[in-house]
């Protein structure tokens, strides 16, 4: 199973390291953003991967910046106390970026892997917002129905075919024909009971 790390989180950590005087961090953040832009352009042009030459240049530049980072963050000296010496946040970030380089750059080698996991966080945000506003659900069926609707709407937006508009009578009007939602146990006004919501 392939794994990709969230580079949105890396960019925030790199920005904080750059503010602490770590120049390598600013250059590495610029490299990640530029690579993401190149991946997007390649996808628009119908490419399924970056060229081998581009990937070679990318990884070489990445490794060079990591080497500069290690030179600027020497290992802490032993204090004679038990346990490992404490590292700075920048040093810990550098260590992770070095150890998991392939996972950091997965979005560049595999276009099916997103640059960040922000989409996952956005999918969960509405569930947390509902919980904050209304608290817990009174029944399991109510929670199931809510999540079914949220999943359907989110999938339509991701597929770019969500075209459901509600009229004054709260009845779906046919703008496009996306996939059908599963049957619900409760009734939607204007829709026959236990029939899939067909738009």
Overview of this protein structure:
With 199 residues, this protein is mainly alpha-helical. It folds into two domains: 7-116, no CATH class; 118-199, no CATH class. It contains eight helices and two strands. It has helices spanning 7-19, 23-44, 52-72, 89-99, 101-104, 106-109, 118-134, 140-159, and strands spanning 165-166, 172-173. Strands 1-2 form a two-stranded antiparallel ribbon. The longest helix has 22 residues, at 23-44. The chain is flat.
Q: What is the first-to-last residue Cα distance?
A: 37 Å
Give the helix proportion (percent range). Answer: 55-70%
What is the chain-wise order of helices and strands? HHHHHHHHEE
Number of E-type strands: 2
Beta content = under 5%
Features:
2 domains, 199 residues, mainly alpha, two-stranded antiparallel sheet, 56% helix
Give the secondary structure arrangement, pairings included:
Elements: H1 7-19, H2 23-44, H3 52-72, H4 89-99, H5 101-104, H6 106-109, H7 118-134, H8 140-159, E1 165-166, E2 172-173
Antiparallel strand pairs: 1-2
Task: Please sum up the structure shown.
With 199 residues, this protein is mostly helical. The protein contains 8 helices and 2 strands, in the order H-H-H-H-H-H-H-H-E-E.
